[in-house]
Write a structure and sequence with these properties.
A 5-stranded mixed sheet has the order 1-2-3-4-5. The chain has 4 helices and 5 strands. A hairpin with a 5-residue loop joins strand 1 and strand 2. The longest helix has 16 residues. The protein has about 130 residues and is an alpha/beta fold.
Length: about 130
Amino acid sequence: MVTERDKAGNRLGPEGFKQMTNQQGSDQILVVEMGDDPQFTDKLNNLTLRLERNPSLDVVLDMREVNQIYSSNISQLLRVRAAVIANKRRLFLAETRTQVWGVLLESSLDKKFDVADDVATALTSLEMNHK
């Protein structure tokens, strides 16, 4: 079986998700590069299934390509958040654009999510959490 990798050499999962290895050598962090719908919905659906199979994952949603979200997307985000928290793991939104952040603020959901300026910051925070 061939392991697909991105340009930085990170292993890609079957849905194109980046499975990151932490310093302890275990695959505990999943980075998902999000985009506008329909990709947004598809990625969160795949993520939900993946979390059912492997509940011991922390998740970073790379939101840099998301220009807008809808109420159905917010509902999906909340379901993913609930699944991650139920497994005592963490979910980060990274590089969230102003338009999307505004929607989260208006719906009072900004405090429900861990937020990072970029993916590297989210990964660092998760690494520090696992030490």
